Amino acid sequence: MTTLIYDDTFPGLLSTVSHVYEYRLADVRIMPQSHAQQSLFGGHTVVETNNAMAERVWKGLAKHVSTTARNDIYRTFLSELPGMEEMLLRYIRHIFAHGDVSKDLTHPAVSFVTATTRKVHREKHRMEAFVRFRQTADDLYYATIEPDFNVLPLISDHFEKRYADQRWLIYDVRRNYGIYYDLQGVSTVEMDLSHLLATRHSADGVLAEKEQEYERLWQNYFRSVNIASRKNPRLHRQHMPLRYWKYLTEKH
């Protein structure tokens, strides 16, 4: 078995798929560089990202499947689940061999991609609903999230359209990067802010003067509309899992 190592990016993964086809490799394992471990029973190859080859694979897929099916491949990549690279390789091979295979749920790779896409899509919608911005003294609105999957690339359009009149930063404390909107467009920022933003209270010194007052008003509103006799903690946790609570204003 040959281990192929790529640079953790989606173009890098597509370049690796192209490498597999170019050299007609059959028994391979694909590993992201950040988690790569050399196989004890075979060699390893570092595949350099080649945007032209990645684009060739992406356009080749467009000839066989819909935009939705291609988006499913990207969403599965964003799941970061162990072994998803091999599953995507099998899925892509199945597409090139048989065309649209989205209904072939008996195939392990198709079943995996379908289930994983659903999970990532659900996490995307939860992040769009659960993000809580806080205003800083320099008029920047920031929010911290810790999603199970890398959904920042999927939610940027939603927040750019919804909050087009203010500067904002959404920071993923698990992956140590964020998306920043400067009133012109969204860009990716990479900085280690975990020491500052990991909890709601550690950044209080940089907040706008009225931010804490606004948060108290929101908490009072949340309590006032809550009907005690209709509380259903189990259903509440189902729709709003506990892992999100530490970033929600109404839960503090």
Descriptive overview:
The chain is α/β, with parallel strands linked by helices and about 250 residues long. The chain has two domains: about 1-120, no CATH class; about 130-250, no CATH class. It has nine helices and eight strands. It has a five-stranded mixed sheet, covered by helices on one side. A three-stranded parallel sheet has the order 2-1-3, covered by helices on one side. Helix 1 crosses helix 2 (about 50-60), helix 4 (about 85-100) packs across helix 5 (about 110-130) and helix 5 (about 110-130) packs parallel to helix 6. The mean pLDDT is about 85.
Could you give a short description of this structure?
This protein is an alpha/beta fold and 252 residues long. It is built from nine helices and eight strands. The protein folds into two domains: 2-122, no CATH class; 131-251, no CATH class.
